[in-house]
Input
Amino acid sequence: MTKVFLVDLDRCIGCYACEIACKDENDLTSGVRRIKVTVVDVGEFNRFYVPVFEMNKRGVDACTLCLQLQAESRRPACVHNCLTNALYFGDVVEIEAMAQGMEGEKLAVQHKRANVIYVSRKPIGDLVKKIASGR
Amino acid sequence: MPGKEDVTIHQNTCQVCYCDCGMLTYMKGGRVIKVEGDPTNPHNRGVLCAQGRSARQMLYNPDRLHYPMKRKGERGSGDWERITWDEALDTIAEKLLEVKKKYGPEALAFVKGPTRQMIEQVFQRFCYSYGSPNYSGNWSYCVGPKILGYTFTYGKTPQGLPYMPWSDFKNSKYIMLFGTNPALSFIHRYPRIMSDILDAKEDGAKLVVVDPRFTETASKADTYLPIKPGTDAALLLAMIRTIISEGLYDAEFVEKYTVGFEELMEHIQKYTPEYAEEITGIPTERIVEVARQFAAAKPACLDRREGVLHHTNSTHTLRAMAILLAITGNIDKPGALLFNPGNKLGNITRKDRLKAKPIWAERFPLVEDATAIFAETILTNKPHPIRAMMCTIANPIQEYPNTTKVREALASLDFLVVDDLFMTETAKLADIVLPASTFFEKTELCKTQSLALTKYFQVSHKVMEPLFESLPDWKYICLLGKRMGLEGFDYADENEIIDEIIKPLGVNVADLGDSGVYSVPFEVGLLRKNGFVTPSGKIELYSEQMKKLGYDPLPSYIEPPETGKSKPDAAKKYPFTLITGSKTAVYHHSQQRNYTWLREYVPEPVAEINKKTAARLSISEGDVIVVEGLRGEATLRAKLTSGIMEDVISVTHGWEGEANINYLTDDTQLDPVAAMPAFRTILCNVRRARA
Output
């Protein structure tokens, strides 16, 4: 079944705990960022922190969805190590139902291995959309 | 990932910063292969921050010191000779006894960095057994003004110790934060704090952030109030005045639990919102609005961190905070300010045997330390010579105010020994450098500082023997103590020391098992029920105690010593305001610059400058700039942002070399009660570096 990440943009604080958890879990060398949080200022005192999962690259640079953790019925390292519960991961049915239950604007980004749904109670805007969809 | 079959998981405590989070350490073949947050830990609930999850890069860092060394060439020449622990300990013992004989025991300064309960007590036991009262850490750079301001107002624990009150954000309806960025800096040593604040927001709480910088936390606020650095007390006093004059205070609570309301009412008259606008830069109507909202919200929280404390007026500011919380009744109830039950741990420090008075005793009789005055004391021999210093995981050159002076002072010592993981700038000046062990290689008693919040403490067991020739700090101190003929340093291992400390609780290390966790009972409402341990038995809005000690009995706004108003001539040359000490997600003070996973996030030291200010100075993003002030200068790269007030420059502390911003900070102007130096609100100028 298709796997989906859900990102609650209202709860991402730009602490990079997800990025480092990914490095620690997958024993990455520095410079490799399979999840990358981008700071997006969309106006005075209006800022988003946007986690982007690296789905389009190949080899060591690509997100593997932490299959080794999934094999133990655990969630990917970035998700279980999120300090603010801004990240969720699961089967498409479960996560889409969850997203539907949440207020705010939604942005769905399709990837080969997993889709990502971004949710925000603030208007997401073009700049965030562009970054979230990797364009 | 390696094969799972040989992997063992150990429950210990992350000691990268002061939070002391529950950790699971995964090991294979004697090596740590990863770390995770302990999901059973009520405090971090399964997560670790970026720094905690990088702990492997501390343990296996190629820069770690491997063996003891003694200085061969000039101080700071970098010319070292490898020696044995025996030789190192013999030399230290000999030098310290020599200094004692020549200048008396007070001539030793013991300076420590982040420590936990067990090693803290062992260090003190050593320092006090030697006879020196000059044991010092970061109290006066950190919690001092809060402890004193809140203790004068709310009193002490029934055991006579200071409380460490904390805010119950999760259950609050209004959260007002001053000069703190819990998204990255974990107020109350609690990495899930922002999660709880966001939960409260989702339950309808309002979040108000008061800060000169538009921080990660401010980006989640309902109301963001940029404020001129060092002026928080003016805003708080205007809020108190508005709440009192509009009759919005909790009259029942004030009547039942406080004294001094009449005096407060009279004192506060001059702090109109218009006056506060002039001082803080926050418009009058917004001050009145937050005051009304704060009074109406039930319950409400008000908290702060170093953005407020790192000023020489911060005891006043904290008194104003304590009073604002009290007159609105936000004390000792869910969703408001809570009080820990008090520490019942044993004391093995032997402080009671001390005869001499610390160097700060006369100027600051109430403080636990006044670390900023060491440099001046060393250089002037007043009030008593300091001729030897022991530094343990402490880095005065990169952390203390006025680096030029600190460097000169340390270089002039008869003897300096530094125990650390790495060759820090302080270690470079030492006569002897010792290789310390990380928390993976030693056992420690953790998370005892704020027992109420965490409701537990943990004995964190070592997961491996020390690497190289490194030694755990307790072991080094015990070996040294024995060698110097001091009594009571015969401990065989950490468990024996911890057993002595936790004995009053009726438990020992063995009882606590592998997890080492001990739960502490906690009850809200005990102060309301049992009364406040102050001279009046009530909350003291007006403090007779402070008056008797020669301090102001009511809080005022005091202009910081370096502003355009207090130093108009200097301000012509140095027209900007420097603030230091803001946090990044990846560095804890001067640490972690050599962890490759973390360095990529903040690769270079930067100065944050408002885009408009930068445009006026023709400074572009990434330019190499010099920030210069009355005592020195630092060279950094410009980082342009609209997320900082105009004419305010923010630089993170802790960098080495010419990026060390403490070359500009001041060690002489200190908070008169708590000895806090001015790490913020420093006059400065900014210019592009000459190519």
